[in-house]
Design a protein that fits this description.
The complex is a heterodimer of chains A (about 200) and B (about 210).
Chain A: E1 2-11, E2 14-24, E3 29-33, H1 40-48, E4 55-60, E5 67-70, H2 82-92, H3 98-108, H4 124-136, E6 142-146, H5 154-167, E7 172-176, H6 180-183, E8 189-192
Parallel strand pairs in A: 3-7, 3-8, 5-6, 6-7
Antiparallel strand pairs in A: 1-2, 1-4
Chain B: H1 2-21, H2 25-42, H3 49-70, H4 73-77, H5 81-86, H6 92-120, H7 126-150, H8 156-180, H9 185-210
Helix pairs in contact in B: 1-6, 2-3, 2-6, 3-6, 3-7, 3-8, 6-7, 6-9, 7-8, 7-9, 8-9
Classes of the chains: A alpha/beta (about 200), B mainly alpha (about 210).
C-alpha cells in the first residue's frame, strides 16, 4: 500500500526527516513513535500526500479519495455545524449514500444529538470525535492518523479503540502516537523515529 | 457535472460561513459608503463626471480588496485547507468557488455603492454597469488566486495588495475607459479578454498554489 525509500525532508536548512525506509503492506498497521520534533507529523503528511519529500521517493497505491488523514487540526469549520461539515466533505468525496453515511459516523462517535450545533460550541474532545467522523466518512483504504487519541476522554478513546479493532486487517493504518501501549495489540509493525 | 457540484458545495460553504460570521460584507458596505460620503464633502464644488468616475473605480477596487483579503481567512485560521486539498475534487474548484463567493459579496456591496454614487455624484450609465460586471469577474478571479498565494506567507496582509494592485491596473484602464467614452465596446472587449485570459491561467495553475 505504501513504500518509502530513503525518504528525507528539509525545511530550508533544517532537516526534519532523514533516510526513512518503509514498506506498509495492504492491511498493515504501522505505529510511529518518537519524541517531539522527531518528524512524525512530517512523515505522516508526506504519506497522506499533503507534503512532498525533498529526498527519496514514496509510492502510494491509494488515490486521494482513498486516504483518510487526521492531523493536529480537525480540518472542520467552526462556524458550521457537525452535520454541515460532514455534508460538505460527503459531497466533495461524492459519497453515493451521503446522508446515511454521515448519520452513521455521527452515531458511532456519539455526536448525533449535537449534530445541529456549531463546532465552535464543541469541547476539544467533541471536535476530535468530529475529526474522526470526517476521516472515516468516506471509508478510506489508507488511514493516516496523527495522535488520534489526543483530547479524547476515556469513552471517546474506547470508541476509537473499537473502531480501529473493527477495521484492523481490512484497512491499512499509519498511526503516530506518544502512547504506543494503547495500540500495541493492533500493531503489525513499529517505527521509532529518533530526534 | 461533478465539477459544478463541487464548486456549488464549496461556494455554498463560503456563503454560509459569511452568513454566520458576518465578517466580510458589512466591512465592504461600510467602507464603500464611507468613501463616497467622505469624498462628497471633501471634493470642492461639483466635480466633473470624469473625476468622479475615477473615484468610483478606486472605491470598487479597494472594496474588493477588503473582501479578497478575507477570502481565505477561515481556511487560514481553522487550517481547513488541508481537508479541501485532500478531497478528490479538482483543486481549481476551490479557486472557482472562492471567486464566486467573493463575487457575490462584491456584487452585494455594489448594489449599495452604485445608487450611493448616483445620489452623491452623477448617474450611472448602462456601459458603466456592464463594465462593473466584467471588472468584478477579473477582480475576483485574479484576486482570489493571489489571495491563496498570499495566505501561505507571514506577510499576507501586505503581500495581497502588492501582488494584486499591479495586476488590476488593466482592469482600471478598461473600466474607466468604458465608463467615460461614447463608444465603450473596445474597452468592454478588453475587459472581457482580460477576464478570459486570467481565468484560464488561474484555473490551470491553482493546483500548484495549494499543493506543497
Amino acid at each position: 500500500m505504501l513504500t518509502a525509500r530513503r525518504l528525507g525532508k528539509r525545511y530550508g536548512e533544517k532537516r526534519v526527516l532523514r533516510r526513512i525506509d518503509l514498506v506498509l503492506p495492504r492491511g498493515g498497521f504501522l505505529v510511529v513513535t518518537g519524541p517531539n520534533g522527531a518528524g512524525k507529523t512530517t512523515l505522516l503528511r508526506i504519506c497522506a500526500g499533503l507534503a512532498q519529500p525533498t529526498e527519496g521517493t514514496i509510492e502510494r497505491e491509494a488515490t486521494r479519495a482513498q486516504v483518510g488523514y487526521l492531523g493536529h487540526d480537525p480540518l472542520v469549520y467552526r462556524e458550521l455545524t457537525a452535520l454541515e461539515n460532514l455534508e460538505l466533505y460527503g459531497r466533495l468525496y461524492r459519497l453515493p449514500e451521503r446522508r446515511e453515511r454521515v448519520g452513521m459516523v455521527l452515531e458511532r462517535f456519539g455526536l448525533w444529538e449535537a449534530r445541529h450545533e456549531r463546532v465552535a460550541s464543541y469541547s476539544r474532545g467533541m471536535t476530535q470525535r468530529l475529526a474522526l467522523c470526517r476521516v472515516l466518512l468516506h471509508d478510506p483504504e489508507l488511514l493516516v492518523l496523527d495522535e488520534p487519541y489526543s483530547a479524547l476522554d476515556e469513552a471517546g478513546a474506547e470508541l476509537l479503540d473499537a473502531q480501529l479493532a473493527e477495521l484492523r486487517g481490512e484497512r491499512t493504518f499509519l498511526l503516530a502516537t506518544h502512547d504506543p501501549a494503547r495500540v500495541e495489540p493492533l500493531a503489525s509493525a513499529a517505527l521509532a523515529l529518533a530526534s | 457535472m461533478s465539477y459544478v457540484r463541487d464548486v456549488g458545495a464549496l461556494a455554498r460553504k463560503d456563503l454560509l460561513l459569511e452568513l454566520r460570521a458576518r465578517d466580510t460584507l458589512p466591512a465592504m458596505l461600510l467602507f464603500v459608503a464611507a468613501v463616497f460620503v467622505v469624498f462628497h464633502f471633501a471634493l470642492p464644488g461639483t466635480p466633473s463626471r470624469l473625476e468622479t468616475t475615477g473615484l468610483l473605480w478606486v472605491a470598487i477596487l479597494f472594496t474588493a480588496l477588503l473582501g479578497l483579503g478575507r477570502a481565505f481567512v477561515p481556511e487560514r485560521e481553522q487550517r481547513t485547507l488541508d481537508g479541501l486539498v485532500l478531497a478528490p475534487c479538482d483543486r481549481s474548484a476551490i479557486w472557482l468557488a472562492k471567486s464566486l463567493a467573493t463575487l457575490a459579496f462584491l456584487a452585494a456591496a455594489e448594489v449599495v455603492a452604485l445608487p450611493l454614487y448616483a445620489l452623491f455624484f452623477h448617474s450611472v450609465a448602462g456601459a458603466t454597469v456592464l463594465a462593473v460586471v466584467l471588472a468584478d469577474l477579473g477582480i475576483c478571479g485574479v484576486g482570489t488566486f493571489l489571495g491563496a498565494m498570499a495566505v501561505a506567507t507571514r506577510a499576507r496582509d501586505l503581500l495581497l495588495p502588492l501582488l494584486f494592485l499591479p495586476l488590476a491596473v488593466p482592469i482600471v484602464v478598461g473600466a474607466v475607459g468604458a465608463s467615460v467614452v461614447a463608444s465603450p465596446g473596445r474597452y468592454l472587449g478588453f475587459l472581457g479578454l482580460y477576464d478570459l485570459l486570467f481565468a484560464v491561467v488561474c484555473w490551470a495553475s491553482f493546483e500548484y498554489v495549494v499543493a506543497e
